[in-house]
Amino acid sequence: QITLGRATKDNQIDVDLALEGPAWKISRKQGVIKLKNNGDFFIANEGRRPIYIDGRPVLGGNKWKLNNNSVVEV
């Protein structure tokens, strides 16, 4: 699994999105990408703001299957 978000000294993240723009818009743990046993990848939004997958919003608390070449916007 890979965690996306904003790293702090108490919160380690695999992909620190605070380095890419306005950090105040990114949750400490914005999302998690997981590989399922069947080979599918899913992204779970664990933040307050939506994550966009191929232009579709995935709201906090929801998950979405990632396809080959999916565009992920945070």
Automatic annotation (TrEMBL):
Domain FHA: 2-58
Cellular component GO terms held in the UniProt record: Ino80 complex; MLL1 complex; NSL complex
InterPro entries in the record: FHA_dom, MCRS1, SMAD_FHA_dom_sf
Gene3D superfamilies in the record: 2.60.200.20
SUPFAM superfamilies given in the database record: SMAD/FHA domain
Pfam families: FHA (PF00498)
MF terms in GO: G-quadruplex RNA binding
Identification of the protein by name: MCRS1 protein
Residue spans crossing the bilayer: none
